[in-house]
């Protein structure tokens, strides 16, 4: 998710361009700092200070109550869902039968016994876990085994090991009673992507084209979502009268026990997953690394990383003669991005083209990162160049972008710049 570019002087060069985003402190949904631009598809936690998010390309992030940091998943397969019986017993499932397990220390691959993509995972305990996509898979604490039931389920939820519901294609919902899976009658034919309930007589399922249906313990019935266009991807609640649904274009709906109403998310990104530790601690994940957190009271705005670059102690513009030495210094306030992995950038555009400072090689022609590494404070100005320059116009730039991939990512870039004019001496 892109954040506001933290600069004090706007750079003038396209190759170091940026996007501007703002944060406002209002009660409701707040953007969180993340370390990925990959879509995040599922979220679950054991508490508000132990939350996991999974997504495209094997992405796994962990929130410790302070910040989201990437975890090593050991796979590049897309991960669609995550669930655990505790913070040290977590399962992530995804493409081509991928199942990963976290033991509190590291993630490891499990043999799923299938090559079908798995879209959902839920369990009643560490020895009773279900995953589904095209065919149900069950984990008994030792081995994953497959059933012969083809479902096309997208999400799964239950109240116990003998009362489980799975929702999916063509408005289908199936129920498990500890012996058999059996189909249920629903009033819709649109695909259902999410299911959650507060009890066996209060279950919600959401899906395509504004579909929301409710089960009262006897029958499923349609609810008015206020839209026949929006796709809703997931649903979660803390109680029967505190239920959230998330969907395309940043749409978030809330059900207070009477009707569904739209809430302001602050984003237009697609929202794919939701989970909460309580009514006031709810997390939503979505496209382009989006993570939102709901708070009943205002949270402080995100503090951007603020790079600073100076020439001869000045923010510029600076005008000098060729005989004057140019001393370039940099400093950095990491803000809320401390320890986030990033690409560091230090460059200069000259009359002869762009040049980059690359550690440990020195100055090279072209645009290249200084180095990869975590964002850290540079409290005291650090001298990075001290020497004379030939006549001409120069633009020195310093910044960090928190998508560590060796490529300049303007939307994730915090940067600063200073202009220098070296004038020819008078004849």
Rg calc: 26 Å
Structural class by helix and strand composition = mainly beta
Uncertain segments of ≥5 residues (pLDDT<50)?
A: 1-25
Q: Helix count?
A: 0
Shape: elongated
The second-level CATH architecture of the largest domain is: 7 Propeller
CATH class of the largest domain: Mainly Beta
Amino-to-carboxy terminus distance = 54 Å
Largest sheet: 7 strands, mixed
**Can you count the beta strands?**
38
Task: Explain what the structure shows.
- The chain is an all-beta fold and 427 residues long.
- It has 2 domains: 270 residues, Methylamine Dehydrogenase, Chain H; 117 residues, Immunoglobulin-like, CATH 2.60.40.
- Helix content is 0%, strand content 53%.
- The strands form 9 sheets. Strands 30, 32, 33, 34, 35, 37 and 38 form a 7-stranded mixed sheet that branches.
- Strand 32 and strand 33 form a beta hairpin.
- The radius of gyration is 26 Å and the shape is elongated.
- It starts with 27 loop residues before the first strand and ends in a 5-residue tail after the last strand.
Summary of the model, kept short:
By secondary structure, this protein is mostly beta strands. The chain is built from no helices and 38 strands.
């Amino acid at each position: 998710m892109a954040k506001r570019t933290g600069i004090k002087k706007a750079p003038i060069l396209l190759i170091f361009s940026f996007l501007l985003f703002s944060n406002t402190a209002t009660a409701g949904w707040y953007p969180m700092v993340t370390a990925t631009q990959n879509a995040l598809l599922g979220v679950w936690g054991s508490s508000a200070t132990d939350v996991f998010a999974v997504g495209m390309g094997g992405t796994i992030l962990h929130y410790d109550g302070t910040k989201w940091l990437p975890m090593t998943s050991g796979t590049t397969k897309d991960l669609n869902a995550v669930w655990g019986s505790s913070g040290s017993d977590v399962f992530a499932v995804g493409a081509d039968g991928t199942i990963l397990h976290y033991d509190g220390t590291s993630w490891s691959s499990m043999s799923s016994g299938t090559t079908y993509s798995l879209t959902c995972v839920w369990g009643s305990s560490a020895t009773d876990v279900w995953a589904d996509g095209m065919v149900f898979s069950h984990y008994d604490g030792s081995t994953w085994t497959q059933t012969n039931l083809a479902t096309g389920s997208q999400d799964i939820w239950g109240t116990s090991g003998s009362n489980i519901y799975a929702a999916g294609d063509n408005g289908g919902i199936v129920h498990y009673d500890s012996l058999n899976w059996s189909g249920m009658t629903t009033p819709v034919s649109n695909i259902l992507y999410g299911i959650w309930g507060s009890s066996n007589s209060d279950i919600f399922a959401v899906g395509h084209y504004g579909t929301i249906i409710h089960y009262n313990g006897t029958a499923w019935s349609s609810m008015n979502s206020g839209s026949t266009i929006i796709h809703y991807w997931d649903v979660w609640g803390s109680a029967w009268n505190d239920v959230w649904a998330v969907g395309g274009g940043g749409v978030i709906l809330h059900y207070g026990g009477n009707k569904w109403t739209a809430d302001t998310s602050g984003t237009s990104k697609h929202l794919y997953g939701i989970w909460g530790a309580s009514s006031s601690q709810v997390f939503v994940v979505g496209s382009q690394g989006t993570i939102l957190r709901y708070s009943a009271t205002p949270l402080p705005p995100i503090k951007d990383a603020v790079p600073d670059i100076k020439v001869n102690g000045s923010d510029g513009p600076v005008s000098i003669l060729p005989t004057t030495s140019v001393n370039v210094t940099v400093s950095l306030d990491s803000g809320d991005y401390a320890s986030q992995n990033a690409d560091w950038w230090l460059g200069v555009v000259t009359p002869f083209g762009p040049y980059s400072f690359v550690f440990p090689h020195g100055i090279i022609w072209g645009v290249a990162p200084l180095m990869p590494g975590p964002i850290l404070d540079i409290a005291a100005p650090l001298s990075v160049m001290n020497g004379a320059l030939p006549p001409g116009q120069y633009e020195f730039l310093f910044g960090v972008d928190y998508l560590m991939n060796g490529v300049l990512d303007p939307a994730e870039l915090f940067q600063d710049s200073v202009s220098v004019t070296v004038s020819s001496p008078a004849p």
